[in-house]
Sequence to fold (376 residues):
Amino acid sequence: MMCQLFPYAEPVTRWLEPEQQRAWRAYVRMQGELNAHLSRQMSVDSDISMADFAVLVQLTDTPDERVRVLELARYLHWEKSRISHHVARMEKRGLVRRENCRSDGRGSFVVLTDQGRSAIEAAAPAHAETVNKLVFDLLDDSEVQALREISEKIFTRLTTGECAAVIARCDADDPMEVVPEEGGCPEA
Amino acid sequence: MMCQLFPYAEPVTRWLEPEQQRAWRAYVRMQGELNAHLSRQMSVDSDISMADFAVLVQLTDTPDERVRVLELARYLHWEKSRISHHVARMEKRGLVRRENCRSDGRGSFVVLTDQGRSAIEAAAPAHAETVNKLVFDLLDDSEVQALREISEKIFTRLTTGECAAVIARCDADDPMEVVPEEGGCPEA
DNA sequence: CGGGAATAGTTGACACATCATCCACGTTCG
DNA sequence: CGAACGTGGATGATGTGTCAACTATTCCCG
Fold:
């Protein structure tokens, strides 16, 4: 009824085409299984989780082995509160330690402990092996390249333009309602 | 020291090659962002979660709109306890309802309610639109095919052979220690 | 200098996933 | 029949992620 009057007010749904449908379902299931398997394997081979691992990688990648909390959040694309909770738990297990920042009274550092270092050193080889066995042993060079290109395209789409607005929570705390921009897809 | 004595007991770690490294990091970040974005978008556009959506899809795909709990678990590759908890929450919100199975006193069905049906019908179009915008608008046919083939390869690897043993929790409850098979990678 | 805004980080409540355990029912076989 | 074992499913404890406040500091600008 009112469709004719406001043709663009209620656009016909763009469903996925059959080929896309198949690709999407394959991707979704693969991704779910792969995540589950990597997590499980990580906690079998070591006593840290994938999340712990990610944090520890950032710390070991830093010369000082100390990183500001929001720095961590930005790099991992996590929310600051997630970092805060997670670091608290890791601290309780002795993997990291918090330290106050002298140059900025609000800030604090997350610092790698010896125990944290040995934990990641113990976990890394098995994890690499797992990734090889589950992924790269199955793919030839062109597939590796395709995986990378596809991933980069989607990632870029997600972190630029309108999508980035939502992520902006990470940088600015209160995006002031993030005006949805009426017309749909302005594209940066 | 003992490496020379037992050469295969402590194999040199297979790290990822640079190209693989890049592809892997791209994939991991993309996948994380994409999941986050899909979930967020789903709860903005409707009042159900991705998990709810997955369950409701299964129910609507069934002629009877009723599915046995473990059937659901197997299809979604979830654990039975996850299903159980989740269905409990969904029931509390009126999206589904439990019903006893007359032919098997232990079993129970999960049944779609009218409210559940309208919830998924309301959510589906926006979700399809999101997937199109974030994924398929960016990929040409060959990339869609590549995505599917890569996903299927990895998924197959994950659900057959030694890996499947761990998943077996889903079918058999107590795999009796799942003997790790000494030698590493026997391959089914 | 003083006072509001932005920034860094924490906290608590809640939703969710996992694990181990438990119970009710069914199957099998003596 | 009835004991032993397998199966379908529920439950509670615990760890983790998200959201919405909240605190404390610093920045900005008159």
